[in-house]
Amino acid sequence: MPSDPVTGHETTGQAPGSTSGSTDAWTGGVQTGVRAWVGEPPPPDPAAEGPDADPESVARKILLDQLTGRARTRKELSDKLASKQVPEEVAARLLDRFTDVGLIDDAAFARLWVGQRQSADGKGLARRALAQELRRKGVDDETARAALDEIDPASEEEAARVLVRRKLRSLARFDDTTATRRLVGMLARKGYSSGLAFSVVRDELAAAGRDQPAEPHSI
What we know:
Layout lengths: L29 H9 L7 H4 L5 H13 L6 H10 L4 H13 L5 H13 L8 H10 L4 H8 L4 H16 L7 H14 L4 H14 L12
Helix pairs in contact: 4-5, 6-8, 7-8, 9-10, 9-11, 10-11
């Protein structure tokens, strides 16, 4: 029986790492055998992994997933595709196609967004705050303006009044000057002008039986 030239021990014909006592000859390639001997994983098999995914199919799935549940602007979807490293030409082609069939519609998005965020049941936002949000969403100024022009001034004022009434409940322990400052500040953050904010706060404080606030410059 032949001996190992390194150890001087007799060899058994076993494959490296085998404990079965089999005398079957090693049938793997030299590189594969070395990898198995030192515990390294085998190299990837391109045939087993299959072809690379089609970028257009991947991008289409991303878009459909993003549009499930709520509308999104073209800018939002474009940013999402870019974050997934979809090639620019593929992204542009699909975004155009989705726009053509009406799945992407920034004007419809703007109207829906304004309706939901302006109402008293929503965030009660005024035009200025809504314009900023639409700009961050990637809606162009002309499209945003068309949606904002649909806001009824009376509805905007009523939303401000609802906000003040809700906030007043948590301000019972504050003096009228402090309450006024906080209420006007809240409406300002919601995008209301200082004139409208002060007028609404004054009326609502009076309706709640509290003293009317001082003029804005003295608050």
